[in-house]
Amino acid sequence: MEERPDGTGTEHDGNPAVSGRVLDAAALRALAHPLRFQLVELLIEHGPSTASELGRLVDESSGLTSYHLRELAKHGLIEEAPELGSARDRYWQPAKGGYTLEGFDMLQRDSTREDALYLLDEVIRARVERLQRWHRQGPRWGREWANATAELTARMRLTREELEEMTTELVAVVDRFREQQFGRDLPDAAAPGAVPITVQIEAFPTGDPPTASEDE
What we know:
By secondary structure, the protein is of the alpha+beta class. It contains nine helices and seven strands.
């Protein structure tokens, strides 16, 4: 996932060759469910999976996970992987292009505020959980992998224009590597030795918001 530079928003990773769809109220409501959000996260982390495989991971019946997977698919959040499985064993994968939650807009509407707050909280919880897992498992990866990672906190004072310039450049770097991955002529779109990597970049003002006159 990656914070978008155009407001409070979350982009859920998918094939970067396709622009992520912007969640409407109905899709937001469908995703703002603890099990459904978890299923999407697992599909991104583990790749195409069946309802039975996902059910074992979340300790739920395949019938329940199958129902929620169909609901996610109904709103275009996931899709079948037709090249895998059979009529009996359907494989699901994240929808190409992923999705984008325009959180700032959704938080301003009474009809979507509660679902948007829940989903944004889940995004934060999942990020913290992944970082904690890395801290626990990091030694098992070895020093070379550890040296290739970064956890950076930088404190500075920037204008709104400078902040926008910085976030735009950071996102461009991430996009370049994602496009490089999906440009490879490999069945799984990854080079030999590649492993799932999560990139988290956070850049935001932490002081009080400007007054109306200062913001003009």
